[in-house]
Specification:
heterodimer, A: about 325 residues, mainly alpha, ABC transporter involved in vitamin B12 uptake, BtuC, 13 helices, about 75% helix, globular, B: alpha/beta, 17 helices
Chain lengths: ~325, ~500
């Protein structure tokens, strides 16, 4: 819990500063939009967090968003598939992509970075090809109005993606922090050899994390496509995997594996979105967007490291 | 002739053990000195003192008659001491020449490597060893034996006058060994002294001018060239007072409980071994380091799948494809390396204990922390684990207490066959006695036990029968009555 505390303090401080400097931060329109984005980003960040806990990485999420968005548009607008079928198909495809990653990593024994880097390139190219490099959209959503309003709407003022995130977080909190499977994830991420010597099938556990990450990317992918309402295959989802990785790391996941928490990932996601919001609301040139985010993440990680070194020094004494 | 090296009254202690107790060693120019002794006799420690890796508590080192302090590896190198370690310290992503001159590269214009000088200089030393290897060759393409030669060339390039070789032949084939021995002969004729550590008495007989034997960290004696023979070395190696610790003869059933048939491991694919473990028996596995005992244990436990072999428990064939199968069948392994394979050191004791059968502490897939804690507390109490609480990380425990946690993992289940691989290595005397006590209780309660140990006292004191392995094959299984250090040593060195 102590690990997340630093990021949480940073988040609160940023919110307070932002609210003082620009009170419209607290306007309901801004908060709603913020919550919607936190929902979309949070869902796939949880998926990435699980992968990172096993000591792996998934770089293909952003490109998968482009491919999934393009496919969703084609299924709904061009093929006129029933909304439920189209969404299910997209989510299943995403899960299948995760399965391929898991297979290549655990059976063919290729490093996760390389496998998913290839995915990053491959899915992007495939998305552009399938869409003939044209922007795909959902038009007036005729035939799937309910789906669109569900994905972009709100329930009692709370955006649907945020509600979905809360639900997924609760389930995944239990799974990760209370279930047998969750314990195995941490064990395998921390020390694969000892986990194998305890009779845990490390390959299955690791592969399952990639499958889950794919599933989460599928859900986020659908929400994101409706949020942007148009999918430009060459730029849709660019860098999104890095937001997920950053959120997980800010939230206390170690890239060495075996460490992390759902609460931390949520705080990390929120922090990144508030930062983005800060750049917009304070009139900082949007070209500085990435620079601000990079600087804050670096400061956060340095502070964490210094804190830990001081703690280690104290425990030695 | 004056000795080139004199080590006088060298003592070195580690927490809980005196590794070296006033050991003397002399080496003469152009001499091949074999250093012999059982596992743990202090050979490697003595050489690490000479090589600057360990600092002795007391004693003096004279080189060319002058007292010399060796504080670091670079001090040793500067004094003409080269060390070829058992685990090679080579970079297989670099070429032969780059390895030889690593950190001392000849330069041009201060920061460019002078490649032609690098290669031609290396070539001199390769030629001196009579090697037909190009200095350009990437190390990756060389065999282990050739890589070892590169290490020797490196020592020569640093003007080594004494070359230490720590079990250089342990991973070499017969022909490679012959080649190494002829290189050692070459070094001797050039006036270089070699200190040769080996368990293989045949090699020692063939190459050594003199043998110095260590036993329990003390000098046990020395043999001149014409006195060197198998029996003389063995009796110096083992000549300890025999057996205050031998345990009470237990009535052992002769019915085999576990039968291992035609087991073949990946490390020794050509060797096939069969043996029985009887109900309530401790079957000791003796042999030298690297003789294939751990590999057999890992194959039985399923973490390293056996190439072939059947495992019968209570007459029934059980299929063990992975550790999970073994655990389901009550076959458990306490591995040699507890910090890597036995435990996840940076999670709490509680989580380590419950890991192999976590579902027992869970309902509907959710782990009950309460049930876990209760069990962990019980096991810590039962095994007398000294820890502030079961929530303490395993990393913060002493070796003995860590080992008890590994045992607690398995004892909270239902063991039928337990394999202990070096159960008391690096463990203090008190905890050792507790672990022996536990093993006896287990065997008395009907658990079949295999105990791999390189500690002769432990093997003789704790086993009911003793299987001895040599290079992947069981060379004999001794009954307790026939077992002695000498009979075990003979089988262990392949006689």
């Amino acid at each position: 819990m102590r690990k997340e505390l630093g990021t949480f303090v940073l988040l609160v401080v940023l919110c307070v500063v932002l609210a003082i400097l620009n009170p419209s931060f607290l306007s309901s329109a801004n908060l709603q939009n913020l919550a919607r984005l936190i929902g979309i980003y949070g869902i796939f960040s949880i998926g990435l967090g699980l992968v990172i806990i096993t000591g792996g990485i998934d770089l293909s999420v952003g490109s998968a968003f482009a491919l999934l968005g393009v496919l969703l548009s084609i299924f709904l607008v061009e093929w006129h598939l029933p909304a439920a079928v189209a969404v299910l198909a997209v989510v299943l495809i995403a899960t299948f992509l995760g399965l391929i990653n898991g297979f290549l990593i655990t059976r063919v024994k290729i490093q996760p970075f390389i496998v998913t880097l290839c995915g990053l390139l491959f899915y992007r190219g495939l998305a552009r090809f399938v869409a003939s490099d044209e922007t795909k959209g959902f038009g007036s959503a005729s035939g799937f109005e309910t789906l669109q309003s569900m994905a972009t709407g709100s329930v009692v003022g709370i955006p649907t993606p945020f509600i979905l995130l809360v639900f997924i977080s609760i389930v995944m909190w239990v799974v990760l922090h209370r279930s047998v499977y969750g314990r195995y994830l941490f064990a395998v991420g921390r020390n694969e050899t000892a986990a194998r010597y305890s009779g845990i099938n490390a390959n299955t556990i690791i592969a399952s994390a990639y499958v889950f990450c794919g599933l989460m990317a599928g859900i986020s992918g659908v929400l994101l496509a409706f949020y942007t309402n148009s999918v430009s295959p060459s730029s849709h989802g660019n860098f999104y995997e890095l937001y997920g990785i950053a959120a997980a790391v800010l939230g206390g996941c170690s890239l060495r594996g075996g460490e992390g928490s759902i609460v931390g990932i949520l705080i990390g996601t929120a922090l990144l979105q508030v930062l983005q919001n800060l750049v917009n609301l304070l009139g900082i040139p949007s070209s500085l967007n990435f620079a601000v985010m990079g600087a804050v993440i670096l400061i956060g990680v340095i502070a964490d490291q210094l804190l830990r070194q001081r703690q280690a020094a104290r425990s030695v004494r | 002739m004056n000795p080139i090296l004199e080590m006088q009254k060298i003592s070195k202690r580690f927490p809980g053990v005196i590794a070296l107790d006033a050991v003397d060693l002399e080496v003469f120019p152009g001499e091949v000195l074999a250093l012999a002794g059982e596992n743990g006799a202090g050979k490697s420690t003595l050489m690490k003192v000479l090589g600057g890796i360990y600092q002795p508590e007391s004693g003096a080192i004279n080189i060319d008659g002058k007292t010399t302090t060796i504080r670091s590896v670079s001090d040793a190198t500067a004094n003409g001491i080269g060390f070829v370690h058992q685990e090679l310290n080579v970079f297989d992503n670099l070429t032969v020449a780059e390895n030889i001159y690593l950190g001392r590269e000849p330069r041009r214009a201060k920061f460019l490597i002078d490649r032609s000088k690098l290669n031609s200089d290396s070539d001199v030393y390769l030629k001196r060893l009579g090697l037909d290897i190009s200095p350009h060759t990437p190390l990756l393409e060389l065999s282990i034996a050739q890589q070892q030669m590169v290490e020797i060339a490196k020592a020569l390039s640093q003007n080594a006058r004494i070359v230490i070789m720590d079990e250089p032949t342990s991973s070499l084939t017969l022909t490679e060994t012959e080649r190494l021995l002829s290189v050692i002969g070459e070094l001797r004729s050039q006036g270089v002294s070699v200190i040769y550590i080996s368990h293989r008495l045949g090699e020692i007989k063939q190459i050594a001018d003199r043998v110095v034997v260590l036993r329990d960290g003390k000098n046990a004696g020395a043999l001149q060239r014409d006195e060197i023979n198998h029996d003389a070395i063995v009796s110096l190696m083992v000549g300890r007072d025999l057996k205050k610790f031998r345990r009470q003869e237990a009535p052992v059933e002769t019915k085999p409980f576990a039968t291992i048939q035609d087991l073949r491991t990946r490390r020794f694919p050509a060797c096939s071994n069969s043996f029985d473990v009887r109900t309530g028996e401790i079957l000791g596995f003796a042999g030298l380091v690297g003789s294939g005992r751990s590999e057999a244990a890992q194959a039985i436990f399923g973490v390293d799948r056996a190439l072939a072999g059947g495992i019968y428990l209570d007459g029934k064939l059980v299929t063990i494809k992975n550790a999970s199968d073994a655990i389901k069948n009550g076959v458990y392994l306490v591995p040699e390396d507890r910090r890597i394979a036995g435990l996840i050191v940076d999670i709490p004791i509680r989580a380590n204990i419950t890991l192999p059968a976590l579902s027992r502490y869970a309902s509907a897939g959710l782990v009950s922390r309460k049930r876990e804690s209760k069990r962990a507390a019980e096991m810590c109490e039962k095994l007398n684990v000294k820890a502030p609480s079961p929530e303490t990380n395993a990393a913060n425990l002493s070796g003995g207490n860590q080992q008890k946690v590994v045992l607690a993992k398995w004892l909270s289940l239902n063991p039928k066959l337990m394999i202990f691989d070096e159960p008391t290595r690096g463990i203090d005397v008190g905890a050792k006695a507790e672990i022996y006590e536990l093993m006896r209780e287990l065997s008395a309660s009907g658990v079949a036990i295999i105990m791999i140990s390189s500690d002769m006292e432990e093997i003789l004191g704790e086993s009911d029968r003793i299987a001895v392995m040599h290079e992947g094959t069981i060379t004999g299984i001794l009954d307790r009555a026939d077992a002695s250090e000498e009979s075990i040593m003979k089988l262990a060195v392949g006689h």
